[in-house]
Amino acid sequence: MTVGVRLDEAAWGLLHQAMDLYQHDGRAVGRLRRQVARLEQPLRIAVAGPWRAGKSTVLNALMGEEVAPVEGADGVFTWYEDGTSPRATAYPVGQPPQELTVVKSATGMRVDLGWRVGEVRDIVVRWPTRALRQVTLIDTPALAAVDEQGHAPVLDRVLRDSDAVLFLTRDGRDSDLRVLESARDSVVGQAAPVNVIMVLSRADEVGGGRIDGLLTARQLARRQHRDPRVGALAVNVVACSGAIGLAGRMLSESDFAALATLAGASRVELEAHLLSADRFVRGELPVHLDAEVRAGLLDRFGLFGIRLATTLVRGGFDTRVTLSAELIRRSGLTELRESMTRCFVDRRDTLKARSALAAVEALVRAEPVRGADGLVGAIEQILAGAHEFRELRLLVALRNARLGFDAELAAEARRLVGGDGVGLAARLGVEHEATVQRLWEVAADAQWRWRDRAEDPLLPLAQRRGAEVVVRSCEGMLAELAAGGR
Question: What is the model's pTM?
Answer without folding.
Answer: 0.86
